[in-house]
């Protein structure tokens, strides 16, 4: 193990424009994988794939800053499958040769699907384990041994403690969405897992954002890692048009219904803060004849997967979710993300809106923001280094004004009751750039602090069940 310093990382930072006409073959991938990619219609590697595949094939440790939607799953799955084909033993009973740790059940299923897809021409066995479902079938599956095990940390530890999984053959560890795992309070579980793994192994760490806690974890876990980054640190996806509509809290669902109908939205993924809030909005939409479904942590796994599938199939027009759905879910052609409530952790904003504008498409993300949320807004704006454009909806001008925010995370104090809107010239009241016009004194900067446990510290409060 090598120490922590950032100086020890060899960094390659590129923008997404660097990789142009490179082929998968030139990255050194073997024929069965090239045939699979051909069949999938993947013509050229994405930037994260172009950068990650060659060093992973060489057995190097890697620390990659890549948003979901950049093709990062294939970025680690392809070289990992190849290494398992080319090197190492035949897998023994209850053993695993590659372990992929992910934060949520949904992501576990999705990453496992990717392994099945990318490994379709290879004789390797993969499987996903996660909590909330019976452990027995998972134990049965592990008996024969697995080349790739995708797991959430809690269930993996249960299996390990019951001797259902052994790590003595482990060659590769992947931490996918490492930041999310810490946000969800998995720091302690991760340490217990790491303690059980052989020291000699390859470790790959993927994270959309890099907090100090993640860097500390990387310092402990990775050996002389190559550091790659394919998007500006903590920046929101550029292909997503983002704006906010100020509104009173109690009128949010009314505004959502109004927008859904008047803008003729085809489909929307809507994020709500609490499970109760999700259920309420789902009910409200259904009462208005809109086909809506919901996913959150209280729903059984099968129900959640079914809701997601119905949404992907276009049967469901509005999928309402807590942040459990914010990361990793791959939903093709998602045109619109609605932040019905702003997220408590600013980084989640980046992940939420990452559900749209994927794989080169453009998307839209609108946030319905009430006065109470101004500090969350300011934290998001600080993190993403932008001030979100405000667009008033004429019939929904809030009584409780959303205080103005300024570049650099400042909030202009003294929220006042709004005057009745003056509709000048009978036109639309888009108030673009109004945040700059305020003459009121600026309040001290609101810091974009996220509550992440220091690595190895106590789990984040209440974060485990979004
Ligand atoms: P990910 O960031 O891994 O969730 O991938 C986002 C989406 O991009 C998935 O739907 C992949 O199937 C797709 N994808 C990944 N790599 C490529 C590629 N090289 N060419 C075209 N599509 C890709």
Task: Give structural notes.
The structure is a single chain. This protein is α/β, with parallel strands linked by helices. 32% of the residues lie in helices and 16% in strands. It contains 14 helices and 17 strands. It has helices at residues 31-40, 47-57, 72-86, 105-118, 136-143, 153-161, 178-183, 187-196, 212-221, 252-262, 275-287, 301-312, 346-353, 374-384; strands spanning 10-13, 62-65, 96-101, 126-129, 146-151, 172-175, 202-207, 226-229, 240-246, 268-271, 292-295, 318-321, 336-339, 363-369, 389-390, 405-406, 410-411. An 8-stranded parallel β-sheet has the order 1-8-2-7-6-3-5-4, with helices on both faces. It has a 7-stranded parallel β-sheet with strand order 11-12-10-13-14-9-15, sandwiched between helices. Helix 3 packs across helix 4 (105-118). The longest helix is centred in the N-terminal third of the chain and has 15 residues, at 72-86. The model is unreliable at 1-20 and 421-466 (pLDDT under 50). Bound molecules: adenosine monophosphate (AMP). InterPro entries: DEAD/DEAH_box_helicase_dom, DEAD/DEAH_RhlB, DEAD_box_RNA_helicase, Helicase_ATP-bd, Helicase_C-like, P-loop_NTPase, RNA-helicase_DEAD-box_CS, RNA_helicase_DEAD_Q_motif.
